[in-house]
Amino acid sequence: MSLIAISQRVAIDSKINERRDCLDQAWTKFALACGFTLIPVPNEPDAARSLCSVLPLRGIVLTGGNDLSAYGGDAPERDTTENLLIDIAEDRALPVLGVCRGMQMIQCRFGIRLERVEGHVASHQTISIDGKLAEVNSYHNFGAAETRPPLEAWAFAKDGVIKAVRHTSKRMMGIMWHPERFSEFAPRDISLFRQFFDLIECARSS
């Protein structure tokens, strides 16, 4: 069994003053299609550290939802927890894959300034991935049109907004589309996750 830690969004119920950690059920289905099991991580740094310390993790996924606090988001505990998860990944040489907000977290980690963007909330959007046109979804209001080392861009929207980044020397990558939100998961996304987390090699050896 390949275990992948996954971050959760914070949902706020103001009527009863409750802050909830939430994970779309679609993520579980997508993970099963990719061949791994998800371990949801609570947005509490000490608990997150303890959980990750006792599990044989194969990698970490940073999910979407909640704007970053630096851009008006209301979940600072999530920012702290996800930064900790990146620290843990670097200490243990674990791969990190950020999705939407998760990619923004990676960008901000390396000093990339985000700007408000228009036209990037759509169930279908055509972008360029490694030079080839592809259809994805898009649900974000912030993005960047420039990057710098150690991050490099490998997918772009037609307006120049960066849709995917990767670290040039570490196993760290981000995508701005949501692979879990397609009614039928894209083979491209399943292959991307399996290769990134070395699950193809794992399946061959089992």
SSE layout:
Elements: E1 3-6, E2 9-13, E3 18-22, H1 25-34, E4 37-40, H2 45-54, E5 57-62, H3 76-92, E6 96-99, H4 101-109, E7 115-116, E8 121-129, E9 132-139, E10 142-143, E11 151-157, E12 162-167, E13 172-175, H5 187-196, H6 199-205
Description:
- This protein is of the alpha/beta class and 206 residues long.
- It has one domain (3-205): Class I glutamine amidotransferase (GATase) domain (Rossmann fold).
- Helices cover 31% and strands 32% of the residues.
- It contains 6 helices and 13 strands.
- The protein has helices at 25-34, 45-54, 76-92, 101-109, 187-196, 199-205, and strands spanning 3-6, 9-13, 18-22, 37-40, 57-62, 96-99, 115-116, 121-129, 132-139, 142-143, 151-157, 162-167, 172-175.
- The strands form 3 sheets. A 9-stranded mixed β-sheet has the order 4-1-5-6-13-12-11-8-9, sandwiched between helices. A two-stranded antiparallel ribbon has the order 2-3.
- Strand 11 (151-157) and strand 12 form a beta hairpin.
- Helix 2 runs parallel beside helix 3.
- The longest helix has 17 residues, at 76-92.
- The chain starts with a strand and ends with a helix.
- Mean pLDDT is 95; it is low at 201-206.
